[in-house]
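User: I'm new to structure prediction. If I give you an amino acid sequence, what do you actually give back? Let's try with this one:
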Amino acid sequence: MARKGGEGGGEDRRRGRGEGEGRGRGRDRGGDRAERDEAELVEKLVAINRVAKVVKGGKRFGFAAIVVVGDGKGKVGYGTGKAREVPEAIRKATEYAKRAMVRVPLREGRTLHHDVRGHFGAGKVVLRAAEPGTGIIAGGPMRAIFESLGVQDVVAKSTGTSNPHNMIKATFDAFTHMASPRSVAAKRGKKIGDIVGRREGDGTAAAATA
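Assistant: Good question. You get back a string of structure tokens that encode the predicted 3D arrangement of the chain. For your 210 residues, that looks like this:
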């Protein structure tokens, strides 16, 4: 009888060890998935400037970087970082951009759903949806944002300052006003087909009257 109890305890110990190994493997799989997602991110260095801090005895020079990060599937973020060396400043900016990523609704996964404006300070931008084959017609920081976001067709124009910080923040302000047909239909209590059909019908009528 004592031997049976010992055998049962051994089975329990083996069973517990197997369950622990399974939980460990699950954590490993989760870590591998996170590493794979980070490896698929698109990182764009928008600008880097040398900055100076006045201290006792002179000036202390450093570098400030601004980076845009996206997954190419509708998520994008930006971040800034300062350090004494360029690589460290870029690393700080990249880490902040990864934590500040936002989801932007895209039409057919290639362009915006509708035209939208955005502004931040003296930065003013106009973003317009485009037909297939148009490409990314944008310059400077906005091009980096759209490439990281996964947009293939868009027309963008900056009508304010050319400061990259304000241009990026104005573009993200425009993203906050972006609405998909699904969200509009949910707010109005209608079907997606009614919203999309009405939009296509208005375009057809406008073309006929032109």
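You can read the tokens as a compact description of the fold. Here is one thing that stands out. The longest helix spans residues 2-39.
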